[in-house]
Amino acid sequence: MPQIIFLPHEELCPDGAVLEGEKGTSVLDVALKNGIGIEHACEKVCACTTCHVIVREGFDSLDESDELEDDLLDKAWGLEPESRLSCQSIIKDEDLVVEIPKYSINHASEQH
């Protein structure tokens, strides 16, 4: 089973995490199942940018983003060439190294 390595994030996973992700599952679902509370204001339907992540390793193993995801990512804070919406990042056979950006465009977190 592929590993999803989450780099340390000050609030969501201060020590980082190494998790197993079942093929066909989204990066967001793996994070949420393991207590990493990545925001997802649209409830995982590719309608916002709050679940934006940067895939530092394994990016090329993911399916290409579609036009809708690309349009949403253009609005994301800290956009990088390896940025993806974690709700749309479906795990394949390769391990991934994921960074959760420090900020999102969400003005009020759903968790606070």
In words, what does this structure look like?
There is one protein chain. This protein is α+β, with helices and mostly antiparallel strands and 112 residues long. The chain is 12% helix and 19% strand. It has a 5-stranded mixed beta sheet with strand order 2-1-5-3-4.
Task: Give a brief outline of the structure.
The protein has 112 residues and is of the alpha+beta class.
- What is the gyration radius calculated from CA atoms? 13 Å
Largest sheet: 5 strands, mixed
Query: Can you list the strand order of the major beta sheet?
Result: 2-1-5-3-4
Mean pLDDT: 92
Strand proportion: 15-25%
**Would you count the extended β strands for me?**
5
Uncertain segments: none
Question: What's the helix count?
Answer: 2
Q: How are helices and strands ordered from N to C?
A: EEHEHEE
Shape: globular
- Give the class from helix and strand content and strand pairing: alpha+beta
How far apart are the first and last residues' alpha carbons, in Å?
33 Å
Indicate the topology.
Blueprint: E1 3-6, E2 17-20, H1 27-33, E3 52-57, H2 67-73, E4 83-85, E5 96-99
Parallel strand pairs: 1-5
Antiparallel strand pairs: 1-2, 3-4, 3-5
Label this structure with key terms.
alpha+beta; 5-stranded mixed β-sheet; 2 helices; 12% helix
